[in-house]
Amino acid sequence: MDVDSSMAPEADHDPAVQNQSTAAAAVEGEQLGEQPQSPVSPATQQPQSPASPQSQQQQQQTPVAGPRHAPTYTVVNAILEKKEDGPGPRCGHTLTAVAAVGEEGSPGYIGPRLILFGGATALEGNSAASGTPSSAGSAGIRLAGATADVHCYDILTNKWSRITPFGEPPTPRAAHVATAVGTMVVIQGGIGPAGLSAEDLHVLDLTQQRPRWHRVVVQGPGPGPRYGHVMALVGQRYLMAIGGNDGKRPLADVWALDTAAKPYEWRKLEPEGEGPPPCMYATASARSDGLLLLCGGRDANSVPLASAYGLAKHRDGRWEWAIAPGVSPSPRYQHAAVFVNARLHVSGGALGGGRMVEDSSSVAVLDTAAGVWCDTKSVVTSPRTGRYSADAAGGDAAVELTRRCRHAAAAVGDLIFIYGGLRGGVLLDDLLVAEDLAAAETTTAASHAAAAAAQSNLPPGRLPGRYGFIDERTRQIMPEAAPDGAVVLGNPVAPPVNGDMYTDISTENALLQGSRRLSKGVEYLVEASAAEAEAISATLAAAKARQVNGEVELPDRDRGSEATPSGKQISTLIKPENAGSNNIPSAGVRLHHRAVVVAAETGGALGGMVRQLSIDQFENEGRRVSYGTPESATAARKLLDRQMSINSVPKKVIAHLLKPRGWKPPVRRQFFLDCNEIADLCDSAERIFSSEPSVLQLRAPIKIFGDLHGQFGDLMRLFDEYGSPSTAGDIAYIDYLFLGDYVDRGQHSLETISLLLALKVEYSQNVHLIRGNHEAADINALFGFRIECIERMGERDGIWAWHRINRLFNWLPLAALIEKKIICMHGGIGRSINHVEQIENLQRPITMEAGSIVLMDLLWSDPTENDSVEGLRPNARGPGLVTFGPDRVMEFCNNNDLQLIVRAHECVMDGFERFAQGHLITLFSATNYCGTANNAGAILVLGRDLVVVPKLIHPLPPAISSPETSPERHIEDTWMQVLLLLTCLGPPDFCLLPCINLFSLIGLL
User: CB 872: neighbour CB atoms within 10 A?
Assistant: First the structure.
C-alpha cells in the first residue's frame, strides 16, 4: 500500500504530530496519541466464560437499585473452519446485525447474522500478526492494510465465515459507516489507501444465499466524501448521515435520505435546537421508535466530548436536536454504541493523549426511559476521570476486555456484540458478547425493586444469552409483573413526533373539525338501528330456542371439497383437538395509581422524555426475551427471523397493503385479489385458526386493537405511529391482538380482513385475531361487507368470496387471556358468563344462529352507562340483549382471578374508556366513526410488567381532493356513500339532536 503521502488527508492530525511526515502509506492520517500500556495480545487473552462461578458470584452480589447497570462482556469462542474465515485482528471496521431470511427449517433459511466489513488490518511499521506494540507508540499510531473483505458471523451456529459477494465491491476502506436496511447492509464513506473514499452508497444484499453488491443511484448533491462520521436508519425510513471529517475539518452537518421515496436523493437538514458541535468519531444509534441518539466524539480542537444529543422529527416535518438527559460517565471518541430497546450501550473509546477510557466507565448505558447514565457499578451522578485504577475497576476482568477503541458493535435481540479494535498498539481479534436483561423492563423504582429481589434469588448457573454459544442450559425468566403485581393503566399517549408524513392531527385541530361534520340524517340512523335490532333479535331468538330445546349444534366437519367460481378445488378443514393452555404462574395484580413514563410527545424537548404522571401514563418499549424452555426459545427465534415465503398469497397481500406511510385508497375500486387467491388465503388462515383454542393464551408485551370496521386508513396510521407488524417494524419485540369487527361500514373491509389474515399466516405465533359480532354472515350481509365484495369483485366472485370469508369467521377464536390476568373479548360478559371455562367450552366452527346465550353475550353485550348503574339492564341494541354493571365485572374478575377486562364493540370518544373503577376498558380503533362521530381511535400497549398504555390517533381533517373524490372515480362508487348514510350511527355519548331519544339512535356497533 505504498502511495504518495500527499494523498493522505492533512487536517486529521493531533497537534502533537501536526508536522510529522506521512511518507509511509496510510489508510488514515489520524493519530491516536496512544501509549503502549501493558498491551494484551489476542492470543493471550483468557476467555471469561459467563458460566464461570466467579462471574456468577459477581452477578449475584451486584445489587439492582434503580435502572440496571451496564452489563459485562465475555469472550465468545467462535468456530473457524479455516483460518481465512475469521476476520483476524483489525480496527476501523463496521459490524452490522442482519435479521434472518426465510423460515427456520425451510431449505433456504438463513439465520440472524453479523456482517463485518472493511477496516485496517495492520499498523504502520508494526505487524498485527506479531502482536507487538508499534515502535511509534509515543509518536502516534497510523493504520494500514485497508480491506474490503466481508466476514459473516452466524449467531445460531457460532461460526465465522468469509463471504465473496457477486458484483463490484466497494474500494478498501476504514473509518466508514454501515447500517442495516431490512436484509441489506448500506456502506458509505471512509478512507482508503488513496485518501477519502467516494461518497457512493454501496449496498450488500443478503436476501439470497449468495450475497450481491449493488451501488445505489442517488440524485443531486450529498454529504460528499468523509470519514469518522455516523450513519443510522431512523424510523425504519430515513438514512441519516451526520458529522465526520471531509479531510479538512470536523463537520456538524446532517443529511437525510428517504428510503421510501424514489428517485433517491440526499437532503441537507437544518434541525432546530442545540445540536452537537462539529466533531468526528462520535457514535449514533436509532431507537426503535425513531429517536436518534448521538454521543461522544472529538471536536475541532481534538477535545473528547461527553455530551449526548437526541434528534427527532416533528409531525410537521421539522427536525430538532435536544440535549439528552443524564450525566455521561466519561468523554470519549472512537467508541461504539448500539441501542437495545430504550438503552443505548456504549463501550470503550479513547480520551486522547495516549489515554483510553479504562475504569468502570469503559462500559456505559444511557437509559432513555429513566433519563440516566449507568456504568458497570452504579448510576452516574458526576463525570468520572476515565483513568484506570484497581479500586475503580474492582478487579473486574471485563474492564480490561472493553478497554479498546476503533472497535465495532451490533445488537441482536438483547445481545450486544463487540469485535476487534485497538488497545496499546495491538490490533484485537476477539468477539465479545453481553446480554441486557433490563432491555424490556420499565424504569419505575418499584419495578426495579422487584427486579432486585428476583435477581438476588437467582440460582447458580443462570446464563445470559439464548442462542447456545455460551451454554446450553436453560435461562431463567425475570419476573414480568410489577412489584405488587399491578396492572397499571396509563393516560393516553399522543402519536410520536418522529416519521409523521401527515398534516397536523393534534387535539386542537381535531376539535376544530367537529364543527365541520355533516349530518347524515336522523331518519337513516333510526332506520339502520331498527334493521340491526331486527337482525340481532332473530339471531338471539334462534339461540334461545336451541338452548331451551336442548339442541346441540355439532361443528360442520363434513362439507368436503368445494369449488371457486373459476373451478378451482379447495379443501375444508377438520378442527383438531384444542391445544392445552400455557401454564403461567399466577400473581396478584391491581390498578396502580402512578407510574414513571416515557412520553411519546416531547414537545421539542427530549430532556422531558421522562415524566411522572398521575393515573399511570407509561410509554411502553417492552421487548420480548427468550422463554424458559428450548421449545419456546425456538419459537422466539422464529419470531425474530421469520420472513415472508416466496411466491405466496400472504406475501403478495403484505407487499401490496402493508404500507403505513405509502398506502392510498385505490382510485378504481376493483380488488387486487381474485377469488382463487382469497381461497388460498382463507385456507391457510383457517388451518391456523382451527388449531388454536377458543380462548387464546397469550404473553406480554402485546398491542391490542379495537373495532376497525373497514377503516383501513386508520389501521395504517396506527401502524405508522406506533409500529407495524413486520420484520422492519416491531414484530420481533411485541405481539398484536385484534378484537374483532374487521368488516362493515368502512370503505375498505376487503383490504382490512385480507391484510390481517395475511399477517396471521406469516406471523402465526405473534398476530392474533378473535371474533366480533360483525364476523357473522347475517350481520355483514346487511351492513356493507357483502355489497363491497360484489361491487369490487363482481357478483359471482364477490358472493363466493363473501361466503368463503364468513366460513372462515366461524373458526375465529372467541377470547384471549394475557398472562392469566387480563381477558380480552369483543362484547362483554352479559348475564350468562361467569367463568372463562364457559368460553373455552364453545366448540368451533360455530355460526351466530347456532350459538348459545354465552356466545351472544360474549359478542353483543355492553357495560352499563357508568359505574353507578349496577346489575343487568336492557340493552338498546335489541330485545333480549343486556348491559352489565360494575358489580358483574368485579364478580367475574374475582371468580377467575383476573384483574382487567379489555373489550371493544362500542365507539367511545377518546378511543378508550374505563369502567368499573378501571377493571374494564372499552377500546375503539376507528376514528371519526362513519364520518360523523369525530371520535379518536386508540390501541392499548401492554408491557411485560402489565402496564397498560393507551395510544391515540385523532381524525384527519377532510381532504380537499383525494382519489376517493377524483373525476376518475367510477360513478357507481357512490354506493358506499349511500351505504354509510344507511348504516352508520353515532357513538353512544354523542346526541345528534336534543329532541331525539338517544337510545333510539344507537345501533349495533
Answer: 15
With CA atoms as reference, report the closest residue to 679 among 575, 561, 759, 770.
561
Phi, psi of 825 (to 5 degrees): -150, 175
Of the candidates 323, 350, 851, 246, the one whose C-alpha atom is nearest the C-alpha of residue 604 is 323
What is the spatial distance between Cα 617 and Cα 813, in angstroms, rounded to a whole number?
Answer: 31
Residue 290's pLDDT is 81
Contact assessment for residue 574 and residue 558, using Cβ atoms and an 8 Å cutoff: no
Considering only CA atoms, which of 38, 55, 63, 67 is closest in space to residue 395? Answer: 55
Q: Residues 846, 764, 722, 446: is their CA dihedral positive or negative?
A: positive
Active site residues: 774
Radius of gyration in angstroms for the set of CA atoms belonging to the chain, rounded to a whole number: 30
Q: What is the pLDDT of residue 553?
A: 38
Question: Cβ distance 90 to 147 under 8 Å?
Answer: yes
260 by Cβ neighbours in 10 Å (0-12 / 13-18 / 19+) ranks as middle
Q: Assign 418 to helix, strand or coil.
A: strand
User: Would you tell me how many other CB atoms lie within 10 Å of the CB of residue 760?
Assistant: 23
All three cell numbers of 111: 439465520
Express each pLDDT in 651-692 by its tens digit.
Answer: 999 999 999 988 989 888 899 999 999 999 999 999 999 999
For the chain, which ranges sit under pLDDT 70?
A: 1-66, 125-142, 384-398, 439-647, 959-1005
DSSP string for residues in 783-799: SSHHHHHHHHH-HHHHH
Q: Return phi, psi of residue 376, to 5°.
A: -75, -10
Query: On the CB side of 726, how many CA atoms lie within 13 Å of its CA?
Result: 24
**CA–CA separation, 258 vs 74, rounded Å?**
38
Query: Which among 434, 397, 421, 356 has a CA at the least distance from the CA of 88?
Result: 421
Angstrom distance (rounded) from CA 422 to CA 123: 10
Whether residue 738 contacts residue 629, with contact meaning beta carbons closer than 8 Å, is answered with no
The amino acid occupying position 360 is S
| Alpha-carbon gap, residue 15 to 208, rounded angstroms | 48
Angstrom distance (rounded) from CA 380 to CA 362: 13
The set of residues, in sequence order, having a beta carbon less than 8 Å from that of 647 and lying 6+ positions away, is: none
Q: Is the pTM of this model over 0.90?
A: no
Separation between Cα atoms, residue 339 and residue 97, nearest integer Å: 12
d(CA 911, CA 492): 9
The x, y and z cell numbers of residue 160, run together, are 465465522
